[in-house]
Design brief:
Length: 725
Amino acid sequence: MDGNNVMNTGCPVMHGGNTDIGRSPTRWWPKTLNLSILHQHDARSNPMDEDFDFREAVKGLDFQGVWDDVEKMLTDSQSWWPADWGHYGGLFIRLSWHAAGSYRLGDGRGGAGTGNIRFEPLNSWPDNASLDKARRILWPVKKKYGNALSWADLLVVAGTVAYSNMGLKVYGFAFGRKDIWGPEMDINWGNDSQILAPTDERVEDINNPSSMDNPFGASHMGLIYVNPEGVNGEHNPQLTAEYVRMTFGRMAMNDEETAALTVGGHTVGKCHGGLRAEDVGPAPADSDVVNGGFGWSDPGYDGNANTIHTSGLEGAWTSNPTQWDNGYLKLLFKYEWKSVKSRAGANQWEPIDIAPEDMVPDATDPSIKHNPIMTDADMAMKVDPIYREICERFHKDFDYLSDTFAKAWFKLTHRDLGPKANYIGPFVPQEDLVWQDPVPAGATGYDVEALKAKIADSGLSGPEMIATAWDSARTYRGSDMRGGANGARISLDPQKDWQGNEPARLAKVLDTLAPLAEAAGASLADTIVLAGNVGIEQAIKAAGHDTQVPFTPGRGDASQEMTDAASFEVMEPLADGFRNWLKADYDIPPEEMLLDRAQLLGLTGIEMTGLVGGLRVLGVNHGGSKHGVFTDREGQLTTDFFQTIADMNFKWVPVEEDGTYQMQERDSGAVRYTATRTDLVFGSNSMLRAYSELYAQDDNEAKFVRDFVAAWTKVMEADRFDLQS
């Protein structure tokens, strides 16, 4: 054999093994539960030193210096990407808007809070075309201020500075957003067959926008909001108005805020439609390495603004696109508008018989004039009677428009930053806003041990106390840092009546705990959590261990007036795999719903496993169900759930009538336990079985107790931003 020819038949590395998503295990075995969503931002992807504390670093940031340097960048036009009219204001505003605009109220995901627009898939959505250039223009500011200035903060402050520079009295700005360091490919951004697939794929009825799949708001995969050319690319301003209302409503915006954002967003900047979309190069994720991360190469671009291609629409909305003024509404109401095609073939609206003084100067050569344009969403502001009435008030009262827009912009760019406890810097407004879910500070000086003793003697059972504490805390969403036990909103509308909270049991527990809290000088929120801890400590002791559950006082109690009930309604759980409950039958398997909840709570796979197994044997299933309670020692914190899952002396048999399962002894066929899919996945999924077998080992009882307590405390304190560095 010729040694020189050994392995000489091709490249010695695995082609596509690290780049071809189609080769992932879920392609070959699509029923596999993919746990990667629980570990997508783990420590291995974070390049910062272990002892780096971002919140401490940002407190030392030169906030005014950042503001001033961004403002200087606005008119520092770069030869490789010149600014329209010599001013990057429109580009920076679009960057901030699209960073924030992916937020969705339904599950709190998306938004500007993590800088996720730097990564796939958002960095390559068609709606975000050329925002890669905006980020590179801002790089010198990021480079200068380093670790104390996150990309997430910079991407949002840029638009706020731009509005201020162009004449808007901005409402304020808060720093404090922490960057992620990798794509969020495991988030469900939509099941569309392709990017920009027809709206029909997201709605049951094209004429009923509310029939769009939750939690999505955008009408197409790859867009932030709605198709600017009209529903499915066809002009229909009234129907577009309904889609705008639905989309912004799913971002927690009312009609007035929606109208203000539409008007204010299109008061500045322009659209670019230099050539047909099919002639533009691929997005950054598909671009060649020679492009250095840039996408959407434009073979027709010659350095002039009117040869750039972004959306396909071409033109500005106002006569003065770098000034904050009321020109948008002036033109919208002054003229009748006709449907035309842009040079790129996109549908847009242009005025009929426009006066020369209302035309728009060319973004490169001001001696050239163009017609202003409107999108279908703009025409919706004129056609829809509700939006028109609001916009007519804005037209008559520019100060009213400016104030409403400034507050709506602040809400748009801060909605996913959580409560004001997370706000940092000198530009933070003093006013408390109801959408910030305000919670007053709670007492810390009361006698915790004395209150624990009163709770233990209250007559409440362990499962009652544990279930109430869990239900109070499980609403937390790390996606937008809303919900959680702080505030005791489980005692208020709408949470007190949620089916998943078992209102009768909840009322009993609250009626018992409220007077104990008042007598001790503690908040109800603290007392609910403390009661859960008491129940767990009792279960730990009954199992033969001696472990205390950490507790830090200081939670406050919110009032009904501090609670935006409508925005909390969308947070009602439809399922809770931790308590083995489904509100109804869904197309989504219950184990996937468990995974979704665990990710929102910020849990890892092992933490989710420990909590489920522990809560099962503690007997806190919804409605007292015995499914998954694999123990003869219910109420004790044991590893019995995991030992049973791993025991090969049993087999699982489906019960066809109700979709549950029986655990039968292999030899006799006797039924020992019953279960749901959420239980069985801990024995069927390879990773979850590995975790379950770990806890089932004879030498890991104490480890399980420690792990359960740590995971429980993590959930109970997830919204304690005052404890986080």
